[in-house]
Amino acid sequence: MASVREILSEMCSEAFAALGYEGASGAVSVSDAQQPSDYQCNDALRLAKSAQRKPRDIAEEVAAHLNGAQDIAEVSIGGPGFLNFRLSDAFLTGHLAECLKDERLGLEKAAKPETIVLDFGGPNIAKPMHVGHLRSAVIGECLKRLLRFQGHEVVGDIHMGDWGKQMGMLIYGLEQRSPDLPYFDANQTHDYPSKAPVTISDLEEVYPRIAAACGEDETVDAAAIQATAELQSGRPGYRALWQHFVDLSIAEMKRDFGSLGVTFDLWYGESRYQEELAGLVTGMKDAGVAEVSDGAVIVRFDETKNKELTSPLVIQKSDGSFLYGTTDLATLRERLTEMNADRVLYVVDQRQGLHFKQVFDAARRWGIAAEKELVHVGFGTVNGTDGKPFKTRAGGVMKLRDMIDLLNQEAHERLSERFDASDDPAHREEIAEMVGVGALKFADLQHDRSQNYIFDLKKFVSFEGKTGPYLQYTAVRIKSLLEKANAFRPNPNDLNPLTDEERALMVHATTLNLAVDEASRQYAPHVLCKYVFEMAQKFNTIYQKHPVLDGDALHPNGEARLALAALCLAHITLVLDLLGIEIPARM
Ligand code: ARG
Q: Among 338, 366, 449, 548, which residue is least crowded by beta carbons within 10 Å?
């Protein structure tokens, strides 16, 4: 369906053309809340110079033309020559009724669907996931849903860190702890136990200890580097042990991401590309993109062309090892050439900005990225009240799992005030989880992703204010209203703007397409959050003043308000689904 903006825009361009004005853009935007109009167009101001007329005169001419020719909107002039549109009630309600009958609420799919690879999550094997991974997962999941909704084919890849030095550190750390395990016997080359010799908590305990030791003691560090090199060159016992680490970690990740409702299509990791790295480096040298410098192989950038590229990208160190960027180039090559992606998005901490600029620039010069769109969708950090990255009370990194548990507990407490003792505890638990996770996700998504924000448990789980639970609760309330009013099925054709507030809600509902477009163009979930929060607020204000049901009967005007409730619920449901937030059965 054409959106209101498109309809008005076409109308404007036609009017300008009919009156002999060349080059009108027809750009129509939503008026801000202070304006008496719903939408507006600035073309008269834009054309005044070339037409050598006063903008107001042009606007008046166009307004007169439009007012005689259509009954969609009343056109007036504002300021120096804005065309202001106030939608007619008949058009407004008719348009929304049509949207409400459509399961996509009238939103069109992209004219040119693309294949998009979405790199998000990015956890590292055997290192506990932390809040940085939370942001990537939550934002990435939302973008995946949003871009799919728009008709793109989106492939989500977790791109695990499963090959770096931390693997050698773990192997060495474990060897120190249990040297008798068959994996460390250099003479044994097969027949390793199928059951892992450690649990994930063992790994989580070994890792920080050995990481600290590497920092303090050069011999430990050298041993970890040696173990990494042996793993990478294929020592069978180390490979077998590594496979256990990977399997254990993946099970853990599936659990944590699962409770956040985050899923991936591909579970590829950095290790997938190791065999090709040597060839890649040679290829880039042959192509003249990379060069040898002090024994290392590097890609130099022309700082005069792009002043952000301040340092070269090392793709092979002088000791022969490959780096993060080498793997990223190999991964990108697979995505662009074998998976035929038109676009590749990386939802990764913005502190890795330089890395992605280097990788993208190197890929373009290498010739694998012509006409492809490569975007680093960066995000800020989650901070504590001290303004520094969020830590546990003990000062350590807050694990993702603990964070989820914290939220769920808080939600549980809030809900226990609302539920009575007869409630099934399992059911209550399930709802608390939906509310806790919804609170966490909304708190993250509602911030402009490039900004840092402060972790504030109580605020996130509050049932009031711009929170997940507020939206979930609004949806639950509307659902229960519609259930109670079941005898009077809401009919989209009953929509009727009885008060200014109801009309404002309806006009807001005509802008869903704008929010969805902007959110996907800018990779900005917070735009959807703002849209849906405003919708819920508007509804709650109306509902407080104008109850719909009077016992079993409808209040006067109940039909119109029931239809409005259905409209509002449909919008909240659609947007929360794009955000990846579930609506509980009750709250
Ligand atoms: N594992 C990395 C980290 O924890 C994130 C990976 C992001 N994706 C990529 N293709 N580099 O920082």
A: 338
- Ligand 1, atom 7: closest residue by C-alpha: 122
Whether 134 and 48 map to the same domain: the answer is no
Structure tokens of 570? 């449909």
Pocket residues: Cβ below 6 A from ligand 1: 119, 122, 124, 159, 161, 328, 346, 348
The pLDDT confidence band at residue 421, using thresholds 50, 70 and 90, is low
Span 378-387, mean pLDDT? Answer: 91
Give domain status of residue 159, yes or no.
no
**Residue of the nearest CA to atom 11 in ligand 1?**
328
Best CA proximity match to 403, nearest among 416, 418, 414, 389: 389
Which atom belonging to ligand 1 lies closest to the Cα atom of 355? 11
135 and 274 within one domain: yes
Q: What is the domain extent for residue 17?
A: 4-87
C-alpha 11: how far from its chain's center?
35
Q: What is the DSSP string of 167-199?
A: HHHHHHHHHHH-TTSGGG-TT--S---SS-SS-
Provide the number of structural domains found in the chain: 4
Last-in-domain residue among 239, 259, 279:
259
| Ligand 1 atom closest to the CA of 349, numbered from 1 | 12
Do 142 and 181 sit in the same domain of this protein? Answer: no
Q: Kindly state whether residues 270 and 254 are assigned to the same domain.
A: no
In angstroms, what CA-CA distances link 245 with 32, 249, 266, 354?
Answer: 55, 6, 18, 30
**Distance from the alpha carbon of residue 347 to the mean position of ligand 1, in angstroms:** 9
Q: Which two tokens stand for residue 515?
A: 């929010």
Pick from 72-76, 214-218, 244-248, 384-388: least confident:
384-388
- The CATH number linked to 12 is 3.30.1360.70
Q: Are 17 and 122 contained in the same domain?
A: no
CA distances from 269 to 123, 125, 160, 529 (A): 10, 9, 4, 32
Domain of 464: which CATH number?
A: 1.10.730.10
Q: How far apart are CA 218 and CA 231, in angstroms?
A: 20
Residue 416 lies in a domain: no
Task: Supply the pTM of this predicted model.
Answer: 0.95
In angstroms, what is the span from residue 324 Cα to ligand 1's centroid?
Answer: 8
Mutate to test the pocket of ligand 1, among 119, 135, 159, 344 (most ligand atoms within 8 A of CB): 159
Atom of ligand 1 nearest to the CA of 324: 11
How far is ligand 1, taken at its centre, from the CA of residue 267, in Å?
A: 13
Would you say residue 158 lies in a domain? Answer: no
Give the tens place of pLDDT for each residue, 467-525: 999 999 999 999 999 999 888 889 999 999 999 999 999 999 999 999 999 999 999 99
What's the CA-to-centroid distance between 323 and ligand 1, angstroms?
A: 12
327: domain CATH number?
3.40.50.620
Which atom, in ligand 1's list, is nearest to the CA of 132? 4
